[in-house]
Amino acid sequence: LQPKTNWTSSKPGNERRAGHWTHVPRNVNMEGLRSGYLFPEISIREHEHIQKNPNARLIRLGIGDTTQPIPDIITTAMAEHADALSTTRGYRGYGAEQGNMELRMAIAETLYRGTGVKGNEIFVSDGAQCDISRLQMLLGSNVKVAVQDPSFPAYIDTSVIVGQSGKLEDKTGKYSDIVYMNCGAENNFFPDLSTTPRTDIIFFCSPNNPTGSAASWQQLEQLVDFAKRNGSIIVYDSAYAAYISDESPRSIFEIPGAKEVAIEISSFSKFAGFTGVRLGWTVVPEELKYSNGFPVIEDFNRIVCTCFNGASNIVQAGGLACLSRDGYQAVCNVVDYYKENAKILVEAFASLGLKVYGGKNAPYVWVHFPGMSSWNVFNEILEKTHVVTVPGRGFGPGGEEYIRVSAFSHRENMMEASLRMKKLFR
Ligand code: PLP
């Protein structure tokens, strides 16, 4: 099954011909994007399902959006900051583009202790997704990138938008000029680096969205070594680091030497329920240099100052509260709640004899349906159980035969969804 929307078609005769046309040519890179971004496509199907089944109680375990309230120690800090803005003493205008230094230091000290990451290497942002785009702007169109397959769609889509890729090949479902590093159950969700060609940039997400697997210390050591030998830069996405339950590293900078070869993007979204509040950060180490020896941090600073004027000061006050002793404990309790949800999902699918991955170090459960199309599995589950999941194919060809189920929901929804799955697949 292919996505139903066809937003990118510029063929004469399509329904968009109506009305006034300007003389502005469409960006050819936008033309090259695959039709429909995954999550809007799922929303369309969800909407159609609701139209057909108005009385069904839909359970949304698709889009990985948080559901639990933000602890009040954090919302109080934001409210107090907002209130102070209406006073002469408390008013603040533009802040530093790179973020409030107190927050940058708190991130370094709380989340990067022992790694050598310093506050001035942390750039506070409005979220990891925005930072992926800003990094792509920094890198430009002349670099070759590698991504895990399956992977979070933003790496490939931004790569196409800035012109790093060739055409989408219908037969393989892959873009030419992008290296897809297969990360499936057969290789423990870690690429075979002995057969991976050199690229300038390696996007690597751990704990991984969608597979839920976290790379081990040894695996990341191999990755850093591979980047060093090839003169590549790793763009490491640790948006789900707070979900790690075992000894897997929470940051690429736990690996010795990583500061010379890696950038890390991360987020308060899944760590503190800030998906709507918006706060993230990017670490660009001083040691990271281009082929001409120029420090990457100076260029990233330039991009941030030019294309972003700093995160909201109200939101940064919330970020700081998340990293206070009590705030940190409070957000970890919410993370634990989702981890318990993930355990319920894993047990439900495993009890049906299905192979289930993830769920231990990530809020996502990755379920294998051998020989089946992931869009068909998605549709069947939606039609028969009114549960929204995500078809693995939406994360790349390597996601075929899988669905991703999100643990971001209320506990009663987990129990109910598990019951419905057991009825359907037993
Ligand atoms: N990176 C990964 C792997 C994600 O799954 C997501 C969101 O789902 C993001 C980045 C985006 O995070 P943010 O909300 O900070 O933009």
Automatic annotation (TrEMBL):
Residues 58-416 form the Aminotransferase class I/classII large domain. It comes from the Eukaryota. Its cofactor is pyridoxal 5'-phosphate. InterPro entries: Aminotransferase_I/II_large, DapL/ALD1, PyrdxlP-dep_Trfase, PyrdxlP-dep_Trfase_major, PyrdxlP-dep_Trfase_small. Coiled coil: none annotated. GO terms for molecular function: pyridoxal phosphate binding; transaminase activity. HAMAP family: DapL_aminotrans_1. This is Aminotransferase class I/classII large domain-containing protein.
